[in-house]
Amino acid sequence: MRAESRKTSRRKFLKESSWGVAAASALAIAGSGQDQKAKAVPSGIGAIVLLGPPGAGKSVQGRRLSEQHSIPVISTGDLLRDHVKRATPLGLQVDPYMKAGKLVPDSLMTPILEDRLSQHDCERGFVLDGYPRTLAQAEGLDALLKKKGVASHVLLLDVPTERLLKLLAGRRVCPRCNRSYNIHFQPPKKEGVCDADGEALVQRPDDKEEVILRRLETYAKETQPVIDTYSRQGRMIRINGSQTPEQVAAEIEAKLAAP
Ligand code: ADP
After folding, report:
1. How far apart are CA 218 and CA 134, in angstroms?
2. Is 90 in the pocket of ligand 1 (CB under 6 A)?
3. Of the four, 31, 50, 236, 238, which is 20 to 30 A from 257 by CA?
4. Which atom of ligand 1 is nearest to 97's Cα?
5. What's the rounded Cα separation, in Å, for the pair 29 and 51?
6. Is there an atom of ligand 1 within 6 Å of 172 CB?
7. What topology does CATH give the domain 2-257?
8. DSSP code per residue over the chain
9. If you take atom 18 of ligand 1, which residue's CA is the nearest one?
10. Which of 22-31, 166-175, 239-248 has the lowest mean pLDDT?
11. Which among 133, 179, 216 is the best mutation to test ligand 1's pocket, defined by most ligand atoms within 8 Å of the CB?
12. Euclidean distance between CA atoms 230 and 81, whole angstroms
């Protein structure tokens, strides 16, 4: 593509795409010249940070954002579960924390995330599902994104606790493709099997009731301060997570596109 037509199509993308605002801010940071190292900047949509309590539907929305905008979704829960499944040295270390519904220590978590974000497919942007969950993670992430010159958009899926309990206890996942369902709100077409690949659905060990309660407690203690901080900074985009997945998706798109 010639330089001129590339420029025109970029302008057209910024104008027409619902991601125009996000992309424009990523470009603005790229052009700000504050940090010369930040020049290797993606001209994509930047980082979309999905926050919300366990069971709020982050993985469904993360998957959708990823498919719709051709950017990877990075779920720290899935990354960790993959290590546990493969019984890697890291997997063996994190397994007890996950089984207990506790957070994996930042010293183990941060390098995994940084390694993943440095991969080529993250250059145009990415969705973060389940990160950051502590103030230390949030500060580390902000510093990393600033260094890379990547804009961030922080979304909070808001869901009341009574609904969360039903959502979590009713959750079933496909062990092959990680797609998740809910027996109350979003059942698979055929009971007990994945729509995508026919695999028998399972309940995650950390979706057992006593672990659910622990995870909600951990969320209130560790992640609520992250939310409060983003809110104070005026960076939080609140989304009503008690709607259908399609309605939640529409609200996300509308708010991301708003000036
Ligand atoms: P949920 O959000 O529904 O709790 P996830 O799949 O995101 O489920 O996470 C499962 C578990 O993985 C958590 O309970 C925690 O042990 C671990 N984990 C995931 N993300 C993080 C993180 N950012 N920091 C520390 N631990 C994490």
Report:
1. 10
2. no
3. 31
4. 16
5. 23
6. no
7. Rossmann fold (3.40.50)
8. --HHHHHHHHHHHHHHSTTHHHHHHHHHHHHS-S-GGGGS---S-EEEEEE--TTSSHHHHHHHHHHHHT--EEEHHHHHHHHHHTT-HHHHHHHHHHHTTPPPPHHHHHHHHHHHHTSGGGTTEEEEES---SHHHHHHHHHHHHHHT--EEEEEEE--HHHHHHHHHTEEE-TTT--EEETTTB--SSTTB-TTT-PBPB--GGGSHHHHHHHHHHIIIIIHHHHHHHHHTT-EEEEETTS-HHHHHHHHHHHHH--
9. 77
10. 22-31
11. 133
12. 28
Enumerate the domain spans of the chain. 2-257
Geometric angle at alpha carbon 139, from 134 and 142, rounded to 5°? 125
Ligand 1 centroid vs 76 CA: distance in angstroms?
A: 6
The amino acid occupying position 1 is M
One-letter amino acid for residue 210 of the chain = E
> pTM of this prediction?
0.73
Tokens of 119: 């991969």
Question: What is the β-pairing status of strands 171-173 and 46-51?
Answer: unpaired
Which of 93, 98, 134 maximizes ligand 1 atoms within 8 Å of its Cβ, making it the mutation to test the pocket?
A: 98
Tell me the pLDDT band of 43, cut-offs 50, 70 and 90: low
- The residue with tokens 């590339």 is 6
Ligand 1 pocket residue status of 56, Cβ below 6 Å? no
